[in-house]
Amino acid sequence: MLQLIKESKTPYYVQIYEYYRLEIEQQRMIAGMRLPSVRELAQQAGVSKMTVEKAYYQLASEGYITRRCKARYEVAFVRPQQENGADGRSSSFHVALRQSWLYDFGSGDMDMERFPLDIWRKHMNKVLSEPAYLTACNDEQGVPDLRSALSQYAYEVRGVHARPEHIIIGAGTASLLGMLTTLLRSSRLCIAVENPGFRLGRELFRNIGYDIVPISIHKGMLDMDALTASDARLIYVSPSHQFPTGTVMPIGMRQRLLQWAEERDGMIIEDDYDSELRYYGKPVPALQGLDTSGRVIYMGALSKVLPFFVRISYMVLPPRLMMAYHRQRGLFRQGASVPEQCVLAAYIQSGELSRQIRRLRKDYQEKGALMEQFLTEAFGQQMEVSRIESGVYCHVSLRSSYGEAELLRRAEAQGCRVLAVQPFYEVPAQEERKEFLLSFSKIPSQKLKQAVMALRLAWREEER
Amino acid sequence: MLQLIKESKTPYYVQIYEYYRLEIEQQRMIAGMRLPSVRELAQQAGVSKMTVEKAYYQLASEGYITRRCKARYEVAFVRPQQENGADGRSSSFHVALRQSWLYDFGSGDMDMERFPLDIWRKHMNKVLSEPAYLTACNDEQGVPDLRSALSQYAYEVRGVHARPEHIIIGAGTASLLGMLTTLLRSSRLCIAVENPGFRLGRELFRNIGYDIVPISIHKGMLDMDALTASDARLIYVSPSHQFPTGTVMPIGMRQRLLQWAEERDGMIIEDDYDSELRYYGKPVPALQGLDTSGRVIYMGALSKVLPFFVRISYMVLPPRLMMAYHRQRGLFRQGASVPEQCVLAAYIQSGELSRQIRRLRKDYQEKGALMEQFLTEAFGQQMEVSRIESGVYCHVSLRSSYGEAELLRRAEAQGCRVLAVQPFYEVPAQEERKEFLLSFSKIPSQKLKQAVMALRLAWREEER
Fold first, then answer.
1. Do A82 and A140 sit in the same domain of this protein?
2. Residues spanned by the domain of B314
3. Helices (H), B106-162
4. What pLDDT sits at residue B69?
């Protein structure tokens, strides 16, 4: 039942929009169901018809609802929950409404203010002044200079062994995973995934016909019995910073996993999406560095340490897959902008990237500590906050009489975007979870406290 | 049998490299076969051991051959023929050797000298000076301004009806096709393709489990009986400039095809890859413009009229597929660089693109005419040259006592890269064809004549 929150900074039409969007996404309203007429809702909610129209228009323009000729609006279709940023790498659809998020706990995007755009621009200028260089950089596998730079970077920062000729550059992790589904397809049509785990990854494989075998993971330990019992010879893991639980896979577990791969003649996809951002202790070297028998496919993303507008990822293939790549090369096209690849190469080689990562680490460590402190102060016993050791997300579980959907809606009504953990489970846990991921990367430090207070207001318990 | 051509401008080591590369690609040498030892080959070919080593090293570094411990080199694996540019959109792998192509008839890349890089750079500068604008442009479906610009452009230039919200931007055609395989997958696992036709397209669909139904096409007419007899409800066509035959689909045929789609409740993928480049008569409007029942998926590429380094393509989805797109949105990530999308938008809106296309059309029309003239003069009765009406490729069929593979090797030995038509056939024609595609876009006009003479030299008949 729609209830507008008068004291909220969020405009009414946005509150209406958010309410129905969630109703539809949470599948409480399904395709074909009719929405109240504009007049009805306006009267009932005590707002002008224009306000309702504005909300409906937005819902329609985003495809949530449609209108049969002159008749009333009805639900157009059901979107999966939380696809928005469901992989913890933010992807913003509600452009028209982004301004409506007062506090975006849901986006891992780096704070643009921390990025030296002028330096990037200088490099770009240089690159776009050298047509001959650009031409020489035209390489299907990725700009050679960038592959060299990444080869060194990945070794120094992550202990990854990658010769430039084993690196494949791609326009984002999704496109590289798409390539992988092709490279691996022939041999393996069954993939084990962490449960909970990176949603986009398993969906991509499921989508082209793979069986998905969820393997429960607890404190970084995979259920090896379940893995061994399964037919899977391929597994998708995020050992350095498990998504979404945020734990690190212990060395013993890593060795067992590598051993499993060798015994199974299997492969391991290592998703190393944010491990540059480690705040305590020394960074955990990548699994790939321990691999002696070419079983690990290393996926490196710089998405957490570069601004959203750079859409370049890379992967390191073991020799046997390089062969497959060469064999099927004709199927692939390099999608990453050549000038942007060149600029990134220069950005890395000039040491700018490392400097920036050091800056970010410092900022984020402080912010993360603040976030923990504020959350603990605000929620006390009601919330369990897991210590932030890396990345930009804080994993919290909440005690509340409200259901997850209701908690989400209340947060959104307060202008807070948060990610629920539930959708990352392939096999839902028995008890309904009230776990959320809260990112602090996009919220300025001085706003952090009021952001947490808004969340507190949204999630406060009321007498009912 | 390797024969070095002394009078060729191509260095010996390159000739050796090209010989074995072709032997392997044409599968005359297969995985495991051993190459002559360096000494043997050096003696036999009358060159220094260093020359042979250089060639072998290059082959090894590209993965064609490997060396078991200290033993002799052997063939590592077989790559499909002609994957290099097999889709007529050049993709250059042999970075180390690109300089060795004296005359590249195989690349559709536009002549960089025809591109106002400075204007592009100016726009890029502006975009990279406006972080707020960049942030506002962050949209999964593609930068809104670019979608608006393309919506208007596609309508004016191609008669395509596309509202910006129905346009999906992608990092290259391949990634958009990948998205399509996902959007269409559920309903249809069988696709009809033109025979001969665009190779990458059908391979992408085959690869994720589609049955491929080749439909022969002659003078732009599809074998409708075969199509109707098949189970296909999806077809991939290039009506405005059939690839590789270069013909245009007559209006009657277009209407029959649309009718077929409606009767079958089917879909048509229209690949409109180069139709901006039409030299005679008025450009043929896109099939999509004739479609009244939302059956056509329009694939627009600017790859022939923009420099190779811009990797942006777009497609226009009919309403029913937009629904599927929204539903599965979480599976897709925008891979195209945001700044590059913004720059392209400005480039189109400022009218620069149209100006450039007019320039290119003029250049290419002249070049195309010259090419025809030179080829006819050089080969006379020996070669049938199909008139160039659009695009950058000239379709020729050759009378020769040599086989296709031999003709390819001889061309390459003369430093000429050409594309054979054969690989574009899904079902090979009975008689061995000696048809080739010759592009003139990358060869400067003043070099065109000597380029053709080099080809003449390569393909001359000898007493044997």
1. no
2. 117-354
3. 117-127, 131-136, 144-158
4. 57
